[in-house]
Specification:
The protein is α/β, with parallel strands linked by helices. The protein has helices at residues 21-35, 72-86, 104-121, 142-155, 170-191; strands spanning 10-15, 39-44, 58-64, 90-96, 127-132, 134-135, 165-166. The protein is built from five helices and seven strands. The chain has a five-stranded parallel sheet, sandwiched between helices. Strands 6-7 form a two-stranded antiparallel sheet. The structure holds flavin mononucleotide (FMN).
């Protein structure tokens, strides 16, 4: 447990997902924050309504890469709220397959997606985690299964299409959240709050 001087903070955890893995990651982030004594608003970017990040002490956004892009509702959200997010502690978990690749070029490409998002929207998160997602072969239609198997094969990933493969490192996610909390507590202490 990270000591925040008895003060729990409020976090917005906003995610976008197509196949469900990023929702699972966002839920893990939210649940870890809650076990550390913080309050969380967990929101799907497809149903944001009035998810104003400015009312939180920090925002952790999570989105997956699909065919080289983050989902449009997520990009729109970040575009609309980028200025507010830049004025507060914000973090981004970028979920992809290529970050788990054996090929360095693919990994570099994965690391470049958040840079391109920043160029497109102006949002510059202070903390970024590149997180491997999942291959849900049993849930894909024929074309998706074929395409993802080809990509996985090129990247040295799992190609057994009879099973799903979760590549997400849950310990790494908790460590990332802990690092953010430590940084925020340090800032609060320095500001004398
Ligand atoms: C149709 C499709 C396209 C994908 N395209 C990419 C891609 O361009 N780059 C990449 O690194 N991962 C790609 N992935 C892998 C996803 O990022 C990974 O499966 C992730 O877990 C999906 O998150 P979600 O379940 O929240 O949608 C793709 C996955 C699918 C199903």
């Amino acid at each position: 447990m990270i000591n925040v001087g008895g003060l729990g903070m409020n976090f917005l955890v906003l995610y976008s997902t197509i196949e469900g893995q990023t929702r699972k990651i966002a839920e893990a982030v939210a649940s870890h924050l809650e076990t550390q004594g913080h309050m969380v608003m967990l929101t799907d970017a497809n149903q944001v309504g009035f998810a104003d990040p400015g009312t939180s002490d920090g925002a952790i956004l999570c989105a997956p890469v699909h065919i080289g892009r983050y989902p449009s509702p997520f990009v729109h959200y970040v575009h609309d709220w980028g200025t507010v997010l830049n004025d507060m502690p914000s973090a981004f978990i970028s979920v992809s397959l290529s970050i788990a690749s054996a090929d360095e070029e693919e990994k570099t490409e994965a690391r470049d997606y958040p840079v391109r998002l920043a160029d497109e929207t102006g949002w510059k998160p202070r903390f970024v985690l590149h997180c491997a997602g999942a291959l849900k072969y049993t849930e894909y239609d024929f074309f998706k299964r074929w395409m993802l198997k080809r990509i996985a094969s090129a990247e040295g990933g799992p190609i057994d299409t009879k099973h799903d493969h979760e590549l997400t490192n849950w310990t790494e996610i908790k460590r990332f959240v802990d690092d953010i909390l430590r940084a925020l507590v340090k800032e609060r202490n320095l500001a004398g709050e």
